[in-house]
Give the backbone structure.
Amino acid sequence: MYNDNKEIELEETYADKYRIVLCGANAYEKKYYFNNKFDRIPENIKEELHIICVLFTEEVGGVFTIGFTPLGEVEMDAQKEEGDLLYDDIGAELLMKEIRRKKAEMLRALSIYFKVTFLHQDAAALLEEEDDE
């Protein structure tokens, strides 16, 4: 018998296992991380990512990361430590939606950058796909 839930669990495990973190901030340790494999990203984008991550953790707490799926899609993740009563679950979801909306162009550009640089996809084809949408 086919089990949809099991397949979803496997996909989530696969995505988590192979997710590549671009940057993140930790409210507990008051630290910011940027993956040096992405040093070629322009400085203004790096600064904007830094601001997004730090402001996110200042507002809702926890640990916030921006990364890539194995297929090159940008994803954001927010986690809290067990027992953290100050973490704002609802605020985290709302803030991630706001970031996706307000920074959509930058996130699309990061996705294309990742696909071209690390997955060796054709930049012209990716840009053409963007134009078609």
Notes: DSSP finds five helices and four strands in the chain.
